[in-house]
Protein: L-fuconate dehydratase
Organism: Microbacterium arthrosphaerae
Amino acid sequence: MSRIVAFETTDIRFPTSLSLDGSDAMNPDPDYSAAYLRIVTDAADGVDGHGFVFTIGRGNDVQVAALDALAGHLVGRELEPLLDDMGRTNRALIGDSQLRWLGPEKGVMHMAIGAVVNALWDIKAKRAGLPLWQLLSRMTPDEIVALVDFRYLTNAITPDEALQILRDAEPGRAAREQELLTTGYPAYTTSPGWLGYSDEKLARLCREAIADGFGQIKLKVGADLEDDIRRLRVAREVCGPDFPIAIDANQRWEVSEAIEWVNALAPFGLAWIEEPTSPDDVLGHAEIARGVAPVRVATGEHAQNRVIFKQLLQADALSVMQIDAARVGGVNENIANLLLAAKSGVPVCPHAGGVGLCEAVQHLSMFDFVAVSGTREGRMIEYVDHLHEHFVVPTDVRGGVYAAPLAPGAGMEMKAESRAAYEWEGTRVGV
């Protein structure tokens, strides 16, 4: 048996606010950041696990402190029992009643648990010699169901229903895995659409996105209606009448305001409206969905947990589910979210961008295609061309598609030199 001997956390921040990369109506000057975790073991194979929580600057130290609060659950523990039953490991971390009180199952504590779970999956995948998507896709339906905490979900999906979804997808797994390796997974890009960009930069980046093979772009909206009309006109003139353009309000609006604003922009032909109001307002999203139809509502990147996703689906409040690799309680909870979407027949188009989110969430979409939904129809992974150079295995996006990663692991490992170079004011904590 090997043991976990260190739980190293680092406050990493990139000064993206200087170029307004990531700017939108709610977040005008983000500094893309990561509360970063490295789980170190004494195993002879030398494999360690990497995970993080994505933030946008101030407060990243708070997220690091939440990670540090979990060290006692892992340091000194035997590693193999944790990896052998990741369902039990996930439930044990979430079940610490004193830490759970800080949520429950939401906020900085829940995201910290997600980073720990993801780092353990990173070790498990590296030890198996497989990328995470392939490791998950080759598990049996029973093994996958055992990963999921169905508490609070059984009025929407039961373990037996989840098992049936996975068994129905099982016969075509090998063919879909080969198809994925051959053709990749479709991507769309938000790179042209940051709110702080000039019209000239917007037009240039739209042209580049089309030339690069992307099948959709996304524009940030919500600060000023006349500005949004002007910017959408610029994008539509460059992209042509039929090219899909989504918009994203980043939670900016009241419910009635969202309906009015989206209907004013609808003549430009919208692929979807993303995060029109508070991510917690399930009934508000449902009202907006009715009020802006046939424009689709997309949301979920800030959904706190599987229960919010369950309610959004039950209320017909979204037509596109957007999971995030670092927002909920890690891989296990996102498997629950994918199963909920499959049961409801709703496509999943993950939130990415940020720092490392593209690298991480591609594994979940690829697993979904191979082993859960069995389709890429109407599904895309967001792509933003920022900060990939800092990762040991950066995303490989060519011709508007994600190439399936082949390197073992969960994809969240940042280069040691980048971690050192962008550590915030030397605030490193090691346990």
Notes: The radius of gyration is 21 Å. Residues 192 and 202 are 5 Å apart (CA to CA). The longest strand covers residues 4-13.
